[in-house]
Design a protein that fits this description.
The complex is a heterodimer. Chain A is mainly alpha-helical. Chain A is built from ten helices and no strands. Chain A has helices at 12-21, 23-44, 77-113, 115-129, 133-144, 148-174, 178-185, 190-226, 238-246, 254-281. In chain A, α3 runs parallel beside α6 (148-174). By secondary structure, chain B is mainly alpha-helical. Chain B has two domains: 2-73, no CATH class; 90-312, MetI-like (MetI-like fold, Orthogonal Bundle). Chain B contains 14 helices and no strands. Classes of the chains: A mainly alpha, B mainly alpha. The interface between A and B is large, with 44 and 51 residues.
Chain lengths: 289, 315
């Protein structure tokens, strides 16, 4: 049986009531769901076909036929933003998955074993932190060439120490508690205690961190594809669209304005969601970012 | 305190050595033979073999690592395959753009963020706080290179106050050179300042709830003195931590921003080197930036000891 002793007085209704009263959470949730919906809709419908180049319609200003205007190949910017959302979400989500999948077990193991294992893990963390995601991406690209998959790997690697740290810190706070002692007395092993008692108690921490890393992943992906290390054309991506817009700032500023706003709105929504979650799930938690 | 500083120093050196092994290993597994690359496709197998011997590429792995790492220590990074000049010369020329840019951005971000954080914390929950923190929330979400494009549009294209890009070189005089670094620095600094301001605010709010702040108020210290002298100093540890982390982001950001403004810095160099597969240049710059990140984090660790007297006594 899983024990939830972290917030004994919290009921599901209580948390829900708090969630509905938290403005930051609500706005963040709505914006995030909206972006996800836009990405999903793009699979079945976009206003225009983004793979078709219509040179006759190139760099048209926003109008009723093209709400956000067209790019230098006559592609509809709104349609490209919709398809680009898929790429951003997929890259950031998988990168969070990599970070959690490797970082959480590492952090939990370090906290459970302590001593040399713990010290070794912290040093590896220091090592990975010394490589900003962009540098890892540059090295990975130097080996395998540019592409969305390599962007995912680079951002994912950077997420590993983040989750390892959060997990370790959270787990270290749980281990000395009485109910862990009880579980030990009952003869449960280290792995079982970690899975049954430690992880459920730090799940909220991980959820909040996951949201933050998701937002950072979207920003990082945009940066990487902007410098040509991410998704490759013709696959539309927000960063790539900004790169194309750069040399046309004077004649077609809308090419830069709308994809950038898509990034800002998505990241803002995720950050608000993360802040709100942190407030709802742990009133004592300090906001870090 | 010496024990603390020594431990941090040893960890930093260890991290640096491990990082150099990672970079070396990555370059080892790369396809392509530097000797063949330098000689071109028409070179005979014998010529390539001779150059490989000359370049020490046939030596055992460990020896090659030691030779390379030893070279780094004496600032001998090797020769660029494409430019045929020592890599250090290229780096020296480019760092004169990148380092000032990163430092100006770091200074700008701190100078903006700390007063904003103090302002917000001292008016917690009031309109001013809500407004400023809302702006900060927005600032955190803005990608610096997009912000850069918008700044170019506003200040260079519309108002024509500053150049839209390029760098005249420091030889053209301090002011023209600085002028072309203003927009890039602002673009780098503002999103970072937003993060830093939020950290400063929450750290300050935490400190302002402490008993000794009440004591300081009770003994009649003016609000300003309590805030700036007592509270801010104690809120510095989280602020310094973030500042250290931000330097890594700033360096990475510099690489991207230089490409927006066509600044001839390390960032432009590394991308040129990637497209030309000039791997020794890529390797050297990555190593240099990693070393910079490790050094800054070491400095942050040291500064903890200055800010927090408790660490000085700790063994």
């Amino acid at each position: 049986m899983t024990m939830r002793v972290d917030l004994p007085e919290e009921t599901l209704e209580g948390v829900l009531a708090k969630a509905l009263g938290n403005r930051s959470f609500l706005i963040g949730l709505v914006v995030t769901l909206l972006i996800v919906a836009v990405a999903l809709v793009s699979f079945v419908w976009t206003p225009y076909d983004v793979t078709k180049l219509v040179i006759a319609d190139k760099t048209q200003a926003p109008s009723w036929t093209h709400l956000f205007g067209t790019d230098h190949f006559g592609r509809d910017i709104l349609s490209m933003i919709m398809v680009g959302a898929r790429n951003s979400i997929a890259v950031a989500l998988v990168a969070v998955g990599i970070g959690m999948g490797i970082g959480v077990p590492l952090g939990a193991f370090a906290a459970a074993r302590g001593g040399l294992a713990d010290e070794a893990l912290m040093r590896v963390n220091d090592l990975i932190f010394a490589f900003p995601a962009l540098l890892s991406a540059i090295m990975i690209t130097a080996i395998f060439g540019p592409g969305a998959v390599n962007a995912i790997i680079a951002i994912g690697i950077f997420n590993i120490p983040v989750f390892a740290r959060v997990t370790r810190a959270g787990a270290l706070a749980i281990w000395p508690r009485e109910f862990i002692l009880a579980a030990r007395a009952a003869g449960k092993g280290m792995t079982r205690i970690t899975v049954e008692h430690i992880l459920p108690n730090i799940a909220t921490l991980l959820l909040v961190q996951g949201t933050i890393q998701f937002a950072l992943g979207i920003l990082a992906e945009a940066g990487l594809s902007y410098v040509g290390l991410g998704a490759q054309p013709p696959m539309p991506s927000w960063g790539r669209m900004l790169f194309d817009a750069q040399t046309r700032m004077v004649t077609a500023p809308w090419m830069a304005i709308f994809p950038g706003m898509a990034i800002v709105i998505t990241v803002l929504g995720l950050n608000l969601l993360g802040d709100g979650l942190a407030d709802i799930l742990d009133p004592k938690s300090r906001r870090r970012r | 305190m010496t024990a603390y500083l020594l431990k941090r120093l040893i960890i930093a050196v260890l991290t640096l050595v491990l990082a150099s092994m990672v970079v070396f290993a990555v370059m080892e597994i790369l396809p392509g033979d530097p000797a063949r690359l330098m000689l071109g496709l028409n070179a005979s197998a014998d010529q390539v073999e001779m150059l490989r011997d000359q370049m020490g590429l046939n030596a055992p792995l460990v020896l090659r690592y030691l030779h390379w790492a030893g070279g780094l220590l004496s600032l001998d990074f090797g020769r660029s395959y494409t430019y045929s000049v020592p890599v250090i010369d290229l780096v020296r020329e480019r760092i004169a753009v990148s380092l000032p840019l990163a430092l100006i951005a770091l200074a700008l971000s701190t100078v903006i963020a700390i007063p904003v954080g103090v302002f917000s914390a001292s008016r917690q929950g009031r309109a001013g706080d809500t407004l400023v923190m809302g702006a900060a929330q927005l600032g955190v979400a803005v990608p610096n290179f997009w912000f850069a494009l918008m700044l170019i549009y506003l200040f260079a294209v519309w108002l024509r106050l500053v150049p839209a890009g390029g760098f005249p070189g420091w030889g053209a005089g301090i002011w023209p050179a600085l002028k072309s670094l203003i927009l890039p620095a602002v673009a780098l600094a503002l999103p970072q300042a937003a993060i830093l301001a939020r950290v400063a605010r929450s750290a300050l709010i935490e400190v302002l709830n402490e008993d000794y702040i009440r004591t300081a108020r009770a003994k009649g210290l003016p609000h300003r003195a309590v805030l700036w002298r007592h509270a801010l100093r104690n809120a510095m540890i989280p602020v310094l931590t973030i500042l250290g982390l931000q330097f890594a982001f700033l360096l990475a950001g510099t690489i991207i921003i230089e490409n927006v403004f066509y600044l001839p810095g390390l960032g432009r160099l590394i991308f040129q080197a990637i497209t030309q597969r000039d791997l020794i240049v890529v390797e050297s710059i990555v190593m240099l930036l990693v070393a910079a990140v490790i050094l800054i984090n070491l400095l942050v660790d040291f500064s903890y000891a200055i800010v927090d007297p408790r660490l000085r006594g700790r063994q």
